[in-house]
Predict the 3D structure of the following.
Amino acid sequence: MGNHGHVSAEARGPVPMPPCIVRDPSLAPEGNRKIEWVRRNMPVLRGLEERYGRERPFAGLRTTVSVHLEAKTAYLALVLAAGGAQVSVTGSNPLSTKDDVVAALAERGLHVYAWHGATREEFEEHQLTALQVVPHFVIDDGGDLVHHLHEGARQYAREMLGACEETTAGVLRNRARQDAGALLFPVIAVNDAKMKHLFDNQYGTGQSTMDAIMRTTNLVVTGTTVAVAGFGWCGRGIAARAAGMGAHVIVCEVDEIKALEAVMEGYRVMPMMEAARESDFIITTTGVKNVLAGEHVAALKDGAILANAGHFFDEIDLDALRAGSDEVLEVRQNLTGYHLRDGRWINVIADGKIVNISAADGHPAEIMDTSFAVQALSAEYLVRQWSSGAAGNTGAGDVAGTGAPLPAGVIPVPEEIDYAVARLKLESLGVRLDELTGEQRAYLADFNK
């Protein structure tokens, strides 16, 4: 497994990197404006940037960041650089990469390799080029970097201390690798942190998905029927936003408990085949392929609009749509119409790719402030666990290491990090809390005797 947990002194420090891959350097001013805008609206991450600039917890270390490459991700990469890391950056989805932000990062001296609309081959080349930094840790979204470091680019894994994974899909991939006994290093499941999935997945995905649908279609949601496939944290956020806009919401599920939760929230629950017959909008968010499959196409309403809010783009079976169509054309920007041979039009947003980022700006900055703060503190925790000089204070709840490297496997985010980020976010909002009195603490302690 390379040198996991045993990075030699010679392995620290910068390494030479290939020239940046940037489509249009002249776009940098607009990218810089976007980065500065999100910086103003991400107070928790801004506080970490200030502390990292003083303490330099990543000095001499190298990292690769592969998250949807827009302004908020760019700011996370700059925060890690402020902490002393040599940072290479690439995208996690070709349609979510913003060329102006890429140009801005290159102008600011980071190693960046991405452009919008990359082919599958170009996208993989960009990721593998970014890994040439020979990272000590990676910030991953969907598990692609970890996959490369195990399957096709092990030569770049020789100094790996671990990874931090942003998404449900990526955590599932890494757990499968762990179950097979093949995971080479620790992966911190950032997605499972309370300050990630309770806010990012629910409120961020809910708002940004409906934002993407309204921007792309310019159609009314109020009074329509919206089907949501999957009632995890992302699905329940989308359902809540759609219902709040006046839509009639249907939930499709395979999990009995989640289905019952949806019923108790006031939604109708039914199989996809039934939902397809009456839904104006169908939004998938499951992490499973062919949630809307060929057999469902025959049941879809004329004019139905399909969108995928899951990480991978195979939740909607586009091959089945193409096979049944006699015409396929772009009816609006980011909206493809499939004219079926029986005369119906079925419309797909962003070619079935993750809709809230491919057809909009992704999660609001205030939401990603908490998620990326968890990412930064998890990376710091990973490094402190490895570092022989582990004693210290993260500045956010005394989340310090012990000097013992984390074992290979999927690792939960320490609870202290969740509470530290929540506390910092509340402080930034000017919110104050009650505190238990000594008498109340003693009263509760009696229950534990």
Observations:
- Confidence is low (pLDDT under 50) at residues 389-398.
- Residues 203-358 form a domain with the Rossmann fold fold (CATH 3.40.50.720).
- The chain has 17 helices and 15 strands.
